[in-house]
Design a protein that fits this description.
Elements (H helix, E strand, L loop, with lengths): L2 H11 L2 H17 L2 H15 L13 H16 L5 H8 L2 E3 L4 H6 L3 E6 L7 H8 L4 E4 L6 H11 L5 E3 L2 H8 L3 E6 L8 E6 L2 E6 L1 H5 L4 E8 L2 E6 L5 H14 L13 E2 L10
Parallel strand pairs: 1-9, 2-5, 2-8, 3-4, 3-5
Antiparallel strand pairs: 6-7, 7-10, 8-9
Helix pairs in contact: 1-2, 2-4
């Protein structure tokens, strides 16, 4: 079992307050021991939020503490999926923003949806499954098998299904429901580079391969309730624009690290794979 898997099990087993503290301390300790990761957070913050942002300047040097504190909280809450407290969070979710998801459900259509490592992203499949959608996730397996079993069990709550192969994804698209992809999974697949509003972002192109118009969605906690913000279906540029809007409004909610070079300044040279 990986260290992250062990922490996840402990968080699921502990009462609310100790679980929240443990998760936050774990993330802060991880970032404390990794100066390279802290430097990446600072640089990505500068590019995404801009030099004139209130989070840049001297604040960018300590932003990783606020970022880690918030991500730690979100991880602790997402660990509750499948437990009574997690079900209560899903039941009280508020969905807002321009969307046609209710039309998709009523007319038995199919919607391709994408998310990012922002806020409480693991709740998104649970929320839409709870609303009555048939939810499929286009995901890859975790390298650590024990951790993969743990996370997969958590994600399959509410009847969410996994699709690992192109053939199964194509088959799922012909049935009513939702197929979800993670656009922050920058380590897998070919990237689509998008220049938007002062940033150059590399998004995995797999989701757009199966849907020319992709609905982007974000989940975050506000005033004690989970809120889901969806955007109208669009292309890669629309998805990147939605990400920038949400991150600039709530920068501490996004996992700013582990982007593997997928965030660049507009004038940065992009080398195509040989």
């Amino acid at each position: 079992m990986s260290l992250l898997g062990l922490v996840l099990q402990l968080v699921r087993a502990l009462p609310a307050s100790p679980a929240l503290l443990l998760s936050r301390l774990f993330v802060i300790s991880y970032l404390t021991c990794r100066p390279g990761t802290r430097a990446e957070i600072q640089e990505n913050l500068r590019i995404v939020c801009g030099r004139d942002s209130r989070w840049c300047g001297w604040r960018s040097r300590v932003f990783w503490l606020r970022n880690g504190w918030c991500v730690g909280r979100n991880l602790a809450l997402m660990a509750l999926i499948g437990k009574p407290r997690g079900d209560a969070i899903v039941d009280k979710t508020v969905v807002c923003g321009e969307n046609k998801w209710n039309v998709v459900l009523e007319q038995e259509l199919h919607m391709v949806m994408a998310s990012f490592h922002f806020g409480a992203w693991e709740f998104l499949p649970q929320v839409f499954a709870r609303f009555g959608f048939r939810v499929n996730l286009g995901v890859g397996a975790q390298k650590n098998r024990s951790f993969d079993r743990l996370v997969s069990g958590l994600r399959r709550n509410q009847g969410v299904r996994f699709l690992h192969k192109v053939k199964s994804i194509m088959s799922g698209l012909r049935k009513p429901g939702v197929t979800g992809f993670m656009l922050d999974n920058t380590s897998q697949g070919r990237r689509v580079w998008v220049d938007v509003d002062g940033c150059r972002l590399g998004l995995p192109g797999l989701g757009f391969r199966f849907g020319k118009s992709v609905v982007t969605a974000f989940a975050f906690f506000d005033k004690g309730r989970l809120r889901v913000r969806t955007y109208p279906a669009g292309d890669e540029r629309a998805a990147a624009q939605a990400l920038l809007e949400q991150v600039r409004a709530r920068p501490e909610e996004w996992v700013f690290w582990g982007k593997a070079g997928a965030i660049r300044s507009p004038n940065a040279e992009v080398r195509m794979p040989s």
